[in-house]
Amino acid sequence: MAGADAAYLRMERRTNSMVIVGVIVLAERLTLPELKRLIAERWLIHERFRSVPVEEAIGGTWIEDPYFELDAHVGTLPLPGDGSQAALERLVSELASQGLDPRRPMWRFDLVPHYGAGSAIIERIHHCYADGVALVKLILGLTTAEPGMPLAPPEPTAEDPHQADDALVPWLSSLFAPAATWLGGAIAGGTSLIEAGLKQVLHPREALGEARHAAGMAAELAGVAALPDDPPSPIKGPLGTLKTVAWAPPLQLHEVRTVAHALGCTLNDVLMAVIAGALGSYLRSRGCDPKGRTLRATLPVNLRLADEPSSLGNRFGLVVLPLPIAIAHPLKRLYAVREAMQGLKGSPQAPAAFVTLTALGHLPAAVEALVIDMLSGKASAVITNVPGPQRPIYLCDRLVREMHFCVPQSGTIGLGISLFSYAGELQLGVIADRGLVPAPHAIADRVTAEFERLLLLTVLGSSHMRAPRFPRPRPSPAPDPGSAPRGGS
Questions:
Q1: 436-467: per-residue pLDDT in tens?
Q2: How far from 171 is each of 167, 213, 319, 485, CA to CA, in Å?
Q3: How deeply is 460 buried, as exposed, middle or buried, from its count of CB atoms within 10 A (0-12, 13-18, 19+)?
Q4: Within the chain, which residues score under 50 in pLDDT?
Q5: DSSP letters of 222-255?
Q6: Helix (H) or strand (E) holding 114
């Protein structure tokens, strides 16, 4: 098992299951035999989904399940209650609070046959199988652009468990200068443990150990490790075992882009700013003054190259973004976020985090747990933005009306906010520890309200301040994997 995949397998806890939960809402009814046939023909062509991830003393491995049965992974669930979105959210919350059976391949599709005029499919896939970007590609492979069309030939995906580890070599060689040590001093008190475990990280070719490891990466990790922990708050505290889920009415993607264009910012700047505003407003509603408070979020960053073949597994890093929750004015908050995001662009923080995860996956589990607890203490939330198809798609000839997913939280983080763009709309979902955030709609709906405020200021102008315009960045021929925090879990 690749190092990063093993790291996510071993992050599994009762208080934070590392299971990615997705929801596909169909405009028409779907039957279980149709779904099972689709999964058998297109999902199970990937050997990994017939395999059980097994944790070892050092790392992990994939073992083919000799007793694999499709019925253990695809079934139906009734929707209790009135069949509303709230009822579906309660069902998803219940499933998100459950782990997957570690004795079987850790994924499952549950069909809700009757939801509105159509059906819903709830997918649960353990993070060790693939990250959000890879899973979206796999899900799209189950769909067509028009009803009645045959499915496209399946795109081959790499199954080499060491591919992700090998891919670090060109990253290190192209992005960073040679350095004498690897992650030296990056994690306080852990340097000797990491150095002692380096031989376990190495592929047989010892690519990582002999590569030119970067001082810049070590400095970035040292900087993150030196950050103080986010203090306790209504969204940061002891975790329980129950999760709660909500999703907001979708934002119109063209409106978000219009605001970003008008104000000389990126789409991600706008989204992070309105989320920061929503979290600040939520804290105030809970009697917690955000003034002077620290609140950071970890943002997954896709590290796949534009022309890279499809692959399973995890290929993303993480950056830590300070959220200006104390700034009430939407424009001032937006430019504060933009400045912070600019500081992350070109930073080696994301690839450095990926190297660290790869290393941790090959070190003893106790070492990984200590490092994950230390790093997750620096943030209160994880926020991820995964791009989806911008035209309607069809699954088994049924129109896909909505797509949602819930991002897992690791370590001591109890709040996840996910953004997914589909057919011109931006779907926002919130998953949280039920003891911390018993009513996640109080956050999700505030994001919508904060965006409407920003949109109004953009259209009408503000009487309180003149909004500065920033030069728009020049388009690059290929996306910089370390520049735009989108994609990943």
A1: 999 999 999 999 999 999 999 998 874 444 44
A2: 7, 10, 17, 18
A3: exposed
A4: 169-214, 462-467, 474-486
A5: HHHHHSPPPPPBTTBS---S-EEEEEPPPEEHHH
A6: strand 107-115
Angle (deg, nearest 10), helices 267-285 and 441-460: 130
Task: Name residue 428's beta-bridge partners.
Answer: 419
**H-helix or E-strand spanning residue 118:** strand 118-126
* Phi, then psi, of 478 in degrees rounded to 5: -145, 145
Q: Catalogue the long-range contacts made by 428-432 (C-beta closer than 8 Å, 24 or more residues apart).
A: 428/247, 428/248, 428/250, 428/251, 429/245, 429/246, 429/247, 429/248, 429/404, 429/405, 430/245, 430/246, 430/247, 430/248, 431/21, 431/96, 431/243, 431/244, 431/245, 431/406, 431/407, 432/235, 432/243, 432/244
Structure tokens at 357: 């995860």
Q: State the DSSP code for 346.
A: T
Work out whether strand 60-64 and strand 51-55 pair parallel, antiparallel, or are unpaired. Answer: antiparallel
pLDDT, tens only, 291-316: 888 899 999 998 887 777 778 899 88
Give percent of the chain with pLDDT exceeding 90.
Answer: 66
**Sign, CA torsion 408/442/436/356:** positive
Predicted confidence at residue 309, as pLDDT, reads 73
Which residues, 6 or more positions from 477, have their beta carbon under 8 angstroms from its beta carbon? none
Q: What is the token pair recorded at 84?
A: 């509303």
Q: Which residues contact 110 (CB under 8 A, 6 or more apart)?
A: 74, 75, 76, 77, 95, 121, 122, 123, 124
- The distance of Cα 368 from the centroid of its chain, to the nearest Å, equals 20
CA distance 21 to 34: 21
Residue closest to 346 by CA, chosen among 208, 180, 487, 479: 479
Q: Which residues pair with 318 in a beta bridge?
A: 300
What tokens does 353 get? 């985090």
Six token digits for residue 337:
């976020």
Q: Residue 177 in contact with residue 212, Cβ under 8 Å?
A: yes
What pLDDT does residue 345 have?
83
- Which residues are CB-neighbours of 474 under 8 A, at least 6 positions away? none
